[in-house]
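RETRY 2/3 - previous attempt timed out on the joint model. Re-submitting the same 611-residue input unchanged.
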Amino acid sequence: MRDPEAVRQVGSLSGGDLIRWLRLRLQERKRIPQPELNSLVLNWVRSRPAAEVCRFLPRLVDEVARGQSLQTAWNLLSFLEVALKLRRPRVGIYDHAFHSIGGAQKYGATIAQTLQHDFDVTLLSNRPVALADLESWYGLDLSLCRLKVIPLPFFERKGRAAEIIDPAEVDTRGENPFAAVARESGDYDVFVNNGMLEMVYPLANASLFICHFPEREKSLFFYVDRYTEIVYNSLYTARWIEKRWNLHPHRHIYPPVDMEPEAYPKNKENIILSVGRFDIGGNKQQFEIVQAFEELVSGHRQELEGWKLVLAGGSPPSNSYLEKIKAHLREKKTPAVELQVNIPAFALRAIYEKAKIFWHFCGLGQTDPAKIEHFGMAVAEAMQNGCVPVVFRGGGQAEIVEPGASGFLFSTKRELSEITLRLLRNPGELAEMSLRAYQSGKKFGGRVFAATVREYFDRLLATRFTA
Amino acid sequence: MTDSQEIERQIQKIKAALAEKRASIEDLETLIGENLEGELWGLGEKSLEKAAWDSFFFLDRKTGNLEDEPITSERRMIGPLIVLAKKIWRALFRPYSRMILERQNRLNREFVRLELANLLRIEKLKERLEALERKTVAPGEEKD
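RETRY 2/3 succeeded.
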């Protein structure tokens, strides 16, 4: 990337010669990559007396602004500030959906919490949200962070302020509505695009595209290849980034999962648990879970004696899918099924601690890769509580659970029944596997996430903000 | 004042001046000195479909439009004279230019019709393909 010989030579040039040299290079090669330019100028600044630097720097910056672009000149100065340790690096973390609760948004907010002591962190949103909201939703401390709202007129005109911004509505023949975010990105040393919004062109010296799943295909506003690095949440996501976008992602960081109990929960009860949002579209397939449980009970009453199924998850106030499940339960008069809707975090934690087995159907019967669990937060939460996962063989779940060691994977309902019965009939195996799931779940913990993020940003600083 | 303080002050000064210029530039392409226009090459199926329909609607709106562009001049003194001369010139050649443009317009309309026919044909083929896929792709199998 950077020619060491050029860097060394530049250090011996006077200010005037450097400007002439730069002018020639700009004429010859049209563009000098920003990292190369930053590196060259930093080396020159470090090799020359301060008075000379101060005398020639304005002309040098002017030359860059005219020969290359104003943003390049701006980035050069920002880079010098950070590399010469004149100020702390600024990080901007953008998510167009920060105003709504979600796993991806928790990921971004947790990065902010991790970095706030060493960086000036600003959370960037398109719709109003308070830092206090993010703190309470995700149990985080963001006291040192700032928040900035960048309204997007294209979406504001549509008048659906509470809704999540849908990039699929953008007409790629018109103006890019995310240009305002792109401009803002240029005010930071590191720009983190946490909302996997591929339409935001990054202007910062270092930029990270955090991909939770490549939801959309490449469009005329596709700029993921302009980011310094792509961070992905699971190997499943990485595979689809390569397949759908033909790009090689750089760094794998699992999402933070913080359902860890203080110690291994010993007071287990005969509960099969399933946790997932009651989507109106039924993506988590709770209805099918109830049916599978009923079939299991009707076929094996003796083994299932004393066992119950608990379905926990959030739901919007009016939810036809949830009503369908309730009506079914009333009609069938199934006593061993319990619905826990919109329960607080402490209650959910308590159920996780008590449950012995965890079922997750998301992805079963699906052909759309976006509808298969990209990672599987709930699966990792169950494992952290020693709740043995029996989950669909697909998406991120297949990499969280090690079949036969920390849980089981299934492809059909029949396979699910067989595995569940095997666990029910062998309490020793169930207990052993529960302990292994508990141990394995630790690698997804919040502390591991924070340490990985810190190490990753340290490396980023060391490679992108030095000569 | 230390060396680093001196450099810091200088950087701040340059940045302040640059910030004003930066704020005055509205266009992102001008700010970064690069063309951001996307290429159709490498686009996915859905994006290509969207681009094709967007282009079609654009063409459909524009064909058949033979309205004259208004004639203006920014020159203060001789501006009205230039406008008058252009109007005369345009009026003199209108019958001839109109004939050529109308011929071209008929051709353009045919191209737009052809484009629409092709787009609709692709839609039909897509429906058939999806029906076939539903029959052949097993549940749980991933398809792009």
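Residues 446-464 of chain A form the longest helix (19 residues). Closing ticket.
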